Amino acid sequence: MHSISPPGVALAVRGLTRTYGSGDQTVAALRGIDLTLSSGTFTVVMGPSGSGKSTLLNCISGLEHPTSGSVTIAGEDISGWSESQLTVLRRQRLGFVFQGFHLIPYLTAEQNIGLPIRLAGRRPKRDHIHSLLASVDLLDRGGRLPSELSGGQQQRVAIARAMATSPAVLLADEPTGAVDSANARSVLGLLRNTVDTLGQTILMVTHDPVAAAYADSAVFLVDGHVAGRMHGPTADAVAAQIANLDELITGQLVEVST
After folding, report:
1. b/e code 188-201 from CB counts within 10 Å (16+ = b)
2. Residue 70 maps to a domain
3. Residue range of the domain that includes 63
4. Which of 25, 57, 192, 222 makes the best surface tag, with the fewest CB within 10 Å?
5. Angle at CA of residue 209, ends 205 and 210, nearest 5°
6. How many other C-beta atoms can be found within 10 angstroms of the C-beta atom of residue 57?
C-alpha cells in the first residue's frame, strides 16, 4: 500500500475503537484512540487495569482486529490485512518484549536472538547476532541456555531478539515486571539506548512511574480514551498524575508538561 502518514512517522493510530459483545452486552475497550509516534521516540502508555492498554497493543500488532479506525505502521495501513500478511508484519516490522521473557528453553541466547530472522526465511549473520549480543552486554553469554542466565540477562536477550529484524516499532508490555529493581534499571537503560543510538521507536505499557521517566512522552488511558499526555515525564510527575486520573475522566484532553 502507499504511504498515508508523513515521513518520519513510525506508527499512526486514528479513531481506533474496539468493542466486544453486542446489544446490552456490548463492552467498549477502546473509544476513538488517536496516537502518533515519530521515528526514534520512546512513548509509554499508562492507565488503570481495564483502561485498554493491552487491547491497544493487540490492535497495533494485528493480534486483534479493531472495530473501526486505522493502524498505520511505517507508512502502511494494516487495516483489512489478511492473517498471513499480519503474521509477516509481526515477524519483520514489529519487535516484542514481554513481562515474561518467552525465550525458547532449548535454544542458546545466540539462537534465540536469531530466531526472528530464521522465521522470516533468512539465515542470521553471525556478525549481526554478535553485534546485538554486545549491545545488551552479553557477548560472552551467547552460548548459554536461558536456564543458565539470570532474569535480567534473559530480558536483555529478549530485547536483542526484538531488535533482530530492525523493526519499525518495538512494542514492550511491562518489560520490567519480572525482574528486580537493579535489573529493571538496566533493561530500561537498554531500551532508552536503542532509541538514542539506533533510532528505534518504542511503545511501552507500564504501571511504573520510574519506568515512565525513561520515555520521551507518556499517554494516559482511562476507560478506553486518551485522557492526557505528558511530555518529558518524570517519576514524580507521572505518579502525581496517576493519583489524580479521576480528573481526566471528563473526556477533556489535558496536555501535561513537566
Report:
1. bebbbebbeeeebb
2. yes
3. 1-87+201-258
4. 25
5. 105
6. 19
